[in-house]
Specification:
Length: about 525
């Protein structure tokens, strides 16, 4: 796996560090330091593959010599606590071939450092054994260069101004001011930008090398990983560990790795248990679904509920209206039940399936009828256009034969309607791809055939619609019961009934009443 190591440090004079010594160390060379008048000799260092100094625009060409470059840097840093250089340690993924190391570093340094105005001195190391720890050291200048190649100050004094644009005087008599950096290279957000840039560069070359491995330089916490990070050991502790000498940091890292392995095993076990429980629940749902047959509402019950709904809608009607409405509904529902029994439709699902089948049957018939109608309309238009052209052809031909424009314009004005009719008809024929020589008999035969076919299709569609009508009525009645908006029944006004209907209803009511005989009075003989 690629190493996520990415280290940034500052070479500080207050810590006794030297930029010349750092450049000599990473390049494995011998450089004389003019600051302390000593040679920095690291020529015995092994594993150095390549070194180079990359210069930005306006940098003096002699700065390509690292001795001149870093001595110039130290000469311009006068303070005892000056920051001399910024240093990076970049590790290479082992999945990337060694021939990619140089273009990878140059692409990265040019994009993020040299193009921004920094001088970049880098060295690629691959210590023994080769391929064990390939990495790159990068040193960057901290000052910007002006267009003449001179070092600029790191910061400049800027006077604070009031609302009138005037300088502000302090009680001490000095002007109020603050410092502004010449370049923003020391801003903290650049560290995140440079780190992400090296991640993107590595992943680009990993993809170029055909590797599926990718680098993520974010912390475990930012990646959302529940992993304990190890402690950086440094070169001294690393050498002791390689020689078999146990150290406190090494023991701590071994304990951390063991804890991470234990946590990974626990998380894997928990994940397996969760998947097992999910599989059991899914199997349980499938078993319940298999035992439970989906039950679609019965149409008989829905139609009965529809009659109750209609009865509730008539609660404010007169007695005659209620009785007549109930009778009509009973007749309609009885007829519907007989129709459903004849078609074998028992549930709502059966009814919806039958409706869908009839609709699908009607669609191609309707499409064929529309196609035939459009063609018949076109044929009729062609016939009419040919007739118009023939009627006004003589006028049009005469118009074309007139040679004088004035006479031709006068003729056109006096025969405007005939010429317009001819031109309109002629354009229509051209649009249809025919002319005056079109075979009208063939068109008439086609029209008769289409008309006959259209009549047959019309009969088929009428039959389908006739079969659809009772189903649509029943589906509408059932929909009123199932629709949530029908939960609250609204009272409907009673329709007007004729006098004849009312008299007929009263006569039928009288016939149904039992005949009541009047009681007979007994004759009593009264004696006086």
């Amino acid at each position: 796996m690629p190493s996520p190591h990415f280290n940034i440090t500052i070479t500080k004079r207050s810590k006794g560090k030297s930029a010349v010594a750092g450049a000599a160390y990473q390049s494995g060379s011998r450089i004389f330091s003019e600051y302390d008048q000593k040679y920095k000799d690291y020529t015995r260092k092994q594993g150095i593959i390549y070194t180079e100094v990359m210069l930005p625009e306006h940098a003096p060409p002699e700065y390509a010599d690292r001795a001149i470059l870093w001595n110039s840097v130290e000469e311009n840093e006068k303070q005892w606590n000056s920051q001399l250089a910024r240093r990076f340690v970049l590790t290479f993924p082992r999945e990337v071939p060694p021939e990619y190391y140089l273009p990878m570093v140059k692409d990265y340094c040019n994009e993020f450092f040299v193009s921004k105005g920094m001088c970049c001195d880098f060295a690629i190391h691959d210590p023994d054994p080769p391929g064990h720890n390939p990495h790159c050291h990068v040193m960057l200048t901290m000052r910007a260069l002006d267009e003449n190649g001179r070092w600029l100050p790191k910061a400049r004094k800027v006077y604070d101004l009031d609302e009138n644009g005037e300088r502000i005087r302090l009680p001490s008599g000095n002007w109020k001011c603050h410092k502004e950096n010449t370049a923003d290279w020391n801003e903290r957000f650049h560290g995140e930008e440079w780190r992400h840039g090296w991640e993107v560069t590595q992943n680009r070359y990993l993809e170029l090398a055909g590797s599926d491995v990718r680098v993520d330089l974010r912390s475990y916490e930012r990646q959302g990983l529940d992993v304990i990070p190890t402690v950086h050991m440094g070169p001294a502790v690393t050498q002791m560990e390689r020689r078999g000498i146990a150290t406190n940091i090494g023991n701590l890292n071994r304990d951390i790795r063991a804890a991470n392995r234990l946590l990974a095993a626990i998380r894997s076990t928990i994940k397996g248990l969760r998947e097992w429980i999910a599989e059991i629940r899914q199997a349980q749902k499938e078993a319940v679904a298999e035992t439970e047959t989906p039950c679609s509402p019965a149409l008989a019950g829905l139609l009965t509920a529809y009659m109750d709904l209609r009865k509730a809608e008539r609660r404010d009607w007169s007695g005659y209206g209620k009785q007549k409405g109930a009778t009509d509904d009973l007749k309609a529902v009885s007829k519907a039940m007989m129709y459903l029994n004849s078609k074998g439709l028992v549930t709502l699902e059966d009814l919806d399936s039958a409706l869908q089948g009839l609709n699908e049957k009607a669609k191609p018939i309707s499409a064929e009828m529309k196609k035939a109608e459009r063609r018949m309309q076109t044929i009729t238009g062609i016939q009419k256009a040919v007739a118009d052209c023939k009627t006004h052809k003589a006028v049009h031909d005469k118009y074309l034969k007139i040679g004088w424009k004035t006479r031709q314009a006068a003729f056109a004005e006096s025969h405007r309607d005939e010429l317009d009719s001819f031109n309109k008809a002629y354009r229509f024929l051209k649009k249809q791809g025919v002319d005056l020589n079109v075979n009208l008999e063939a068109l008439q035969a086609e029209y008769d055939s289409l008309q006959s076919s259209h009549a047959g299709l019309s009969r088929q569609l009428a039959a389908v619609k006739e079969e659809l009508k009772p189903m649509k009525d029943i589906r509408y009645w059932v929909g009123k019961v199932l629709s949530p908006e029908q939960a609250e029944v609204e009272s409907k006004p009673e329709p007007k009934h004729s006098v004849t209907e009312r008299l007929k209803y009263m006569q039928e009511q009288k016939k149904q009443e039992p005949e009541q005989k009047a009681p007979q009075k007994k004759k009593q003989d009264m004696e006086l």
